[in-house]
Amino acid sequence: MIAVLSRLQFAFTIAFHFIFVPLTVGLILIILVFEIRYYIKGEDKFRKLSNYFSDIFLINYAFGIVTGIAMTIQFGTNWAAYLIAMGDVFGSPLVLEAIVAFFLESTFTGIWLFRRHTISKRLRLIVVSMIAIGTTFSALWIITANGFMQNPVGASWDGSKMILENFSKLVFNPYAWYMLVHNHLSAIILSGFVVLAISSWHLLKGKEEDKAIFAVSAKYAGWIILVSSILIAISGSSYLDFINAIQPTKIAMITGTQTGALEAVVRVAFGLMLTLGTVFIVISLYTIVFFKKYLKSETLQKIYIYLVPLPYLAITFGWMVAEMGRQPYIIYGFMEVSEGISDVPVSQVWFSLISITVFYAILFVMDYALTISRIKKGLVEPTGGEDNE
Amino acid sequence: MSSDTLGIILFVIVSFSWTIYIIQEMFITGSSALNMSVAKDEGERKQIQVASGLHFDGIEVWVVGALTITLGAFPLVFATTLTHLYIPFFLLIYAIIGRGVSIEVIYKLDSKRWIKSMIITWTVSSIAIMFILGVYLTNVFRGFPLGETGMTEGFLSIFNVTGISGGLLFVALSLVSGAGWIHLTTSGDLGKKAIQFVKKVGVIYSVPILLLLVFMGFNNTVSSIFIGELFMSSYSYFVYPALTVIFAILTTYFGYKENAKKLFTFSILTMALFLLTGFTGMFPYMVPSHIDVTYGITLYDAMAGPSSLKVIIIAVSIFFPIIIGYQTWKYIIFTKKVNYNDE
Question: Which of A221, A323, A369, B297 sits CB 3.0–4.6 Å from B287 for a disulfide?
Fold first, then answer.
């Protein structure tokens, strides 16, 4: 029971955390594109777009950071046995994530939040680049930790726990690097859809004077989705062979040679992920080719506003394949999930599971209300203050 | 370098991170908690929000650092403590999330109900953070009901007299330093009101009393920090608890005199020396047992393998100086007082 509840709680909290993470990881890269354009060409519309989408970024970044701390805590509260077995390997990537990536992000996000209207073009570009590097590093270290669970390299099992032997092997785990590319592309696609939806809303209902600028961001979003969707398809298929070698049971689940309830879920999730990936290519290609039609068609704009859940679904399916496909292992081939839990009264796990669900529901409503109200305000010029409005 | 040396270095790093975190968090949460008592309108409240909101994100890096370094370097400590304190840690997380979100978004929606509920969240979560941290760290120094095969009591045992006194001590010090911080970083008569408030309601007088209660509580168990390895090795270590008491009394004195700068300084010093006393006393234990000293978990029992420790030490020695440099710079840059109606 504890194992079931702990898994449910981890899945729920990480899924919630992951509402914000891909959006911020991808959005900051799109903001970086706008900043580069602004830096090179000095066109003011790119500065405006960057400022506008930065506000959306900053709201979601705040929620992403705080819900991330809840993940770390759970390794101690719910997965104590796992942590004791894995701490040696798991610890260093998490420490690096905290003090290298988190440091970079929070330092430069602070400057971006409070000072972006007063700094030079050049410094703006540097600050945004640093945040982008920070978020990428953050993803790298977390995926390094996850990569070990999927493909344990660089450490040896002494019968009761993993001992780190070679840190560079741990970091250069090919599984992790494949996943980093795949994950980042999915985050960019998701953010592309968010930018497309927001731009569509403005074309449909926004202020007249903003429309020309949001037509530009819609076009950028279309291109970004198209390029990333094609790249993600290539990256995904290129490493199926690699997975086949290290996680044969996962491939067996996907191809259907191994059957059962779990296997069926993995197979269906894989199929849906692929379908959605194809749909993304079609949608973005259509948008770019018939861009003039899109600018005039209220129906298309309306539809695009409601497309945002699709990339979220695609990410969730991909995730189910990756994490359910490694079941029943928590460290592939060495330790099963049920062996990783804490020795804690089941009532306490019920307490945390229920309370965190309620708490996160409130947070979600808050984030939603804030993001939507900010989106609707449209382009706002700073009034000389240091707030992000 | 031997593994033991690496372990000791990381013990120092973990203690250092906790200390740096707490002595900053105390005045941020303290000034936040005072907002409902001293701000007469939204303009004044905004002054407090900006004065504390500017720094809280950078400060949070330290608690994340302290926790993850414990996780990475001493997995057994992290696992044992957090499993035992399952519920308190979830409550702490809720408080940290509540504070982090509310402090940023109070004025983001033009709705009276929104602002009101965010202010309450901000205030309550700030007090809760300090109280839970106080109870937690006091119990870390006092020891846990750790038997031969694990904890012999539930998490409620941390709410003993010493633990609760420790929680209240943290809250009191935080309010006092917060009042000093408001005085130092805002213009107008807001700061004066804050100092007078902590004096009027008696918070300044409670500091030395609570501190003595906690110290006596420490001395009441078999694992008393005052008979720990270092305190027994040299009596000169007793300078730390002695200074803690002296600084606590000075905090009361300068609170009474309404001297904001010295009140702020000595409240911070009281906390820093209190933590130094605790970490010095518990060495080399990281999860001490008050049932039998030998049941406690030492840093040597808990530490990760040498290659893992080395990676963490290298990362820390590169990045801690950068973080400290940046944050000092940030404090200097923002020394300008926050005015009424300042954005």
Answer: B297
Task: Please tell me the distance in Å from B182's CA to the nearest CA on chain A.
Answer: 19
The CA–CA distances, whole Å, from A138 to A96, A255, A335 equal 8, 33, 26
Give the range of the structural domain holding residue B256, as residue numbers without chain letter: 3-333
Q: Poorest-confidence range of B98-107, B173-182, B259-268, B332-341? A: B332-341
Picking from A72, A355, A383, the nearest residue to B68 by CB comes out as A72
pLDDT tens digits, residue range A209-230? Answer: 888 999 999 999 999 999 999 9
How close does chain A come to B342, measured CA to CA in Å? 8
Residue B257 covered by a domain: yes
User: For residue A360, which residues of chain B lie inside 8 Å, CB to CB?
Assistant: none
Q: Residue B340 domain-assigned?
A: no
Q: Is the pLDDT of residue B335 over 80?
A: no
Rounded percentage of chain A residues whose pLDDT exceeds 70: 98
Q: How many domains does chain B have?
A: 1
Q: Do A80 and B83 touch (CB under 8 A)?
A: yes
Which residues on chain B are in Cβ contact (under 8 Å) with A386?
343
Q: Can you give the three-state secondary structure of chain A, one letter per residue?
A: CHHHHHHHHHHHHHHHHHHHHHHHHHHHHHHHHHHHHHHHHCCHHHHHHHHHHHHHHHHHHHHHHHHHHHHHHHHHHCCHHHHHHHHHHHHHHHHHHHHHHHHHHHHHHHHHHHHCCCCCHHHHHHHHHHHHHHHHHHHHHHHHHHHHHHCCCCEEECCCCEEECCHHHHHCCHHHHHHHHHHHHHHHHHHHHHHHHHHHHHHHHCCHHHHHHHHHHHHHHHHHHHHHHHHHHHHHHHCHHHHHHHCHHHHHHHHCCCCCHHHHHHHHHHHHHHHHHHHHHHHHHHHHHCHHHHHHCHHHHHHHHCCCHHHHHHHHHHHHHHHHCCCCEEECCCEEHHHCCCCCCHHHHHHHHHHHHHHHHHHHHHHHHHHHHHHHHCCCCCCCCCCCC
Taking an 8 Å cut-off on Cβ atoms, the answer to whether B93 and A383 are in contact is: no
Using the beta-carbon criterion (under 8 Å), do A99 and B343 form an inter-chain contact?
Answer: no
Residue B70 lies in a domain: yes
Q: Cβ of B222: how many Cβ atoms within 10 Å?
A: 12
Q: Does B343 fall in a domain?
A: no
